[in-house]
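Loading example: each entry is read as three labelled lines plus one structure line.
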Amino acid sequence: MDRELTAWALALAQALLFIAAAPLLAGWLQRVKCHMQNRDAPAVWQPYRNLAKLLRKQMLLAENASWLFRAVPYIVFGAVLLAAAVVPLFAVHLPSAAIADMIVLVAFFALARFFTALAGLDIGTAFGGMGASREMMVAALAEPAMLMAVFTLSMTASTTNLSVATAYMLQAGLVLRPSFLFALLALAMVAVAETSRVPVDNPATHLELTMLHEAMILEYGGRHLALIEWASQIKLMIYSVLIIDFFFPWGIATDFSAMALAVGVIAVTAKLMLLAVVLVVWETVLAKMRLFRVPQFLGFALMLSLLAMLTHVVLETG
Amino acid sequence: MGIAALGLYSQAIILFAALALFTSFIMLAQARMMPLIFTFAWQGLLLAVVSVLTAIASKHPELYVSAALTFTLKVVLIPWLLYRLSIKLNMQYDAEAIEHPTLLLLGGVALVIFSYFVAQSIIHLSGLATRNTIAVSIAIELLGMLLMCVRKSAVAQVIGFMSMESGIFFAAVVSTYGMPLIVELGVAFDILVAAILFGVFFFHLKDSFGSLNVGQFNRLSEANQPMPLRDAAGEPSPGDPS
Amino acid sequence: MTLTLLEVTLLVPLLGGLLLAIVGHRPIAGWINVAVGAVTFGAALAMALEVFEHGPQLSPSRMFYIDAFNVYLVVLTAFVGLTTSIFSRPYMRHEVERGRVTDRRLRLYHSMYQCFLFSMLLALSTNNLGVLWVAMELATLTTVLLVSLYRTPEAIEAAWKYFILCGVGIAQALFGTVLIYFAAESKLGGERDDTLLWTVLHGIAGGGLDPAVITLAFVFLLVGYGTKVGLVPLHNWLPDAHSEGPTPMSAVLSGLLLNVALYALVRVKMLVDASLHTNLAGHLMMGFGLLSFTVAGLFLHRQHDVKRMFSYSSIEHMGLITFGFGMGGPLATFGALLHMTVHSLTKSAIFITVGHACQLAGTQRIDQIRGLIRTQPAIGWGLLLGTVAIAGFPPFGVFISEFLLLMATMKAWPWLTIPLLVGFGVAFAGLFRHVQRMVFGEPPPGQKPVAANMLPVVVHLFLVLWLGLAIPGFLSRWFEQATVLISGASPL
């Protein structure tokens, strides 16, 4: 009984840590990027300050905004929050893992995206509609690729449960699986597209003609904007942690001893920092591509994930 | 037998085979000439590496000959030849429009699935740990054929042709540890001669048609047969009323 | 004894090809070409007599194997190679005079002609299925530059198509060969280097090579060698290559190369039949053969180029022979073997005549070739008689072989005789519709006779006539031996 309570407490702590650490990851990313580009870097705490400032600000709503517009930030944040709660961050076999299904995770993201697009349309401005349509185009291409990649992994682990899959990868040790290589690449490309990073979108720009995600949330301010920004930071973190869990799970805690948990936290922190560096290098060497090249980019991701599935079936079984 | 149960060499063979398959897909999608040639060279390199790994893992030293042949022909000679010719014919920046890339991708995937089913019916004969790579070799061959069918540029067709040959060579390596030496040498000789002839043809094509786009071939199609005054010699016949 | 003869048969054209690569542009080169052909033919004939007396021969290195089936094709190849070289001497001189061929290309032509013969003889006599493939590919490579000899855009296009399509096709055959090796190796175990020898394979085929692998291998081999045979729908290269190259090439391509490719296919079929115990291979061959026969017959009607037309006729006959081998009984096999011979002889004779006719008229267009008999009776009658022979009129040999094939069909597949008969009729109409206007009629003004050597035509047509009137005893015994080899039973 006691042990179960500890487990639940740990699960709660993990979820809270997840949400709390997400802006930190964004700050770290920003800092590394600035160093890379020889600029003065802001402190890693800057995203927290931004969020705090936005939360304090007065809300300003468009005249024709409906209740939907006001509800969307909470829905989006809620969906991402639920998603974050089930992804194993530093320990597997937590009680929350029972609902940690990969397909559910994809569905949470789809839900968030759907409502964001609706909010973009709700105001009736040109940019909102444009952003919504572009976001949906990207989503329509990215989602199958993501599902394919995720299926490949779940076929290998014979489960769609995130926690169980991570544990499986952990105990299988280092196996040179070509399907994982392809799935990793595909997942990384999808993550880049879904979290609105270069080269699909540029989170730093407000140039109207090229923006995707920003166009939809242009009308938001104050608390609403804070929630949406925070949600997208969490989303970035979820994708990063997913990649880590699937492909580099070493170090994650499999029991609840203090030692194992400490190792888990340190390991995941180090891996996240490293992954952020890789992402920054990627963003620095690539330029944002034209909107009409995005389908090719995602088509390539789809091809990779198909190839991952095929090589899994053809080469790794039987 | 799952992959996790295999030794490291076998795992590496499977990994490199999968990467070779990946290069086949890249070639399908690559519209520009120079990257296409380089991708082809990469594929050759991967297949040569697989041959070497198979030789080590299975202790079949004669496979080193296969690997050496693949390396010499597919990584050095043929790409070099194509590269030089592309520069000489001033077409190193050429790119061709790929029609229906998505359809092409799906076609490629269908071919991989097809090769899988074909290979399923025969791999039970093989006792090798890496026998699953037979399907990959068939797929590389068929993808090479697909490349030849959908491309209009002579260079891309040649690369497709050579990629097919690579796939077959690879099939021989992974299914039977290579063909008898005399056959391998003969096949390599044929491929070399073919490559040189293709080079000669590039000049002929350029002279006659002004480009290496064979999509404009229409003089001999059945539909165009009744062409006005078509004369094989290209000169007016004595019986001409004029 | 025999082996030295075999070595002579193979080495003479190879060395001749090398020699002609140096002196091929001299006026004497035409004669050298004839001389090389004559020596090759003599050696092949002597070898054939050896085999005829002593039965199949295997060379000590086991690299070469000569039995009743391939020895007669070796002789046929050497013979048609010789007669065509006799024809090509004045023909190529005329082409040089017209300025269509330069000295360098003439040298290339002579050298490649002999190399081509070498590769076909190698393909026929080798005992190794892998070497057979290498030789078949070599035959493509040696002829591809000859198809584009005139360097016209049409010729380049034809040669490119020939190269690419045959390249793709033959690659499938290589894959099929790999699969056969795979099946045999898993049966015999690795660590031996004779697994791909035909004698070894045929020996173990009855003992059960894996049926799935063998079936798959046969499909690939059928597609591969079938492309070279010119089976519909893989025939696209054939009319182009025949119509755009120099006429002696058309004669040897049509008369010989198609035979050699079919030979390869039949050898493989023998293996497959022995290991599968079903008629799958035969049925596939029948299907493709009948399709080629019908489609090519229809295409004959809409041709405007005389060499193109006769190349469709080649597809048609190759389809018929494939059909015959596919049916597989002793009678059908005998008929198919005979048809291979008479078709080779007749078709090369026709191409030789057509070559002269085109030089005479200065064009290959059917509607501009007129009044051949009036201008030069030898050419006109040669073409007419050749067409009569190829259309299957008695008393020529083609009639006998087609009759045998029809008989066999009537016995085994009665309802298939109807498409066969219709096909004969359609092809006959297609040929005569065009040929009678070329042969008869008023010649255009100013049409002059050309220097022509009709000796090969006369010899070929005489042989075909002879085969039609009475098959000589030794030849029929020879065919019988080959039939027993292929179908396992005697037709008589």
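The mean pLDDT of chain A is 86.
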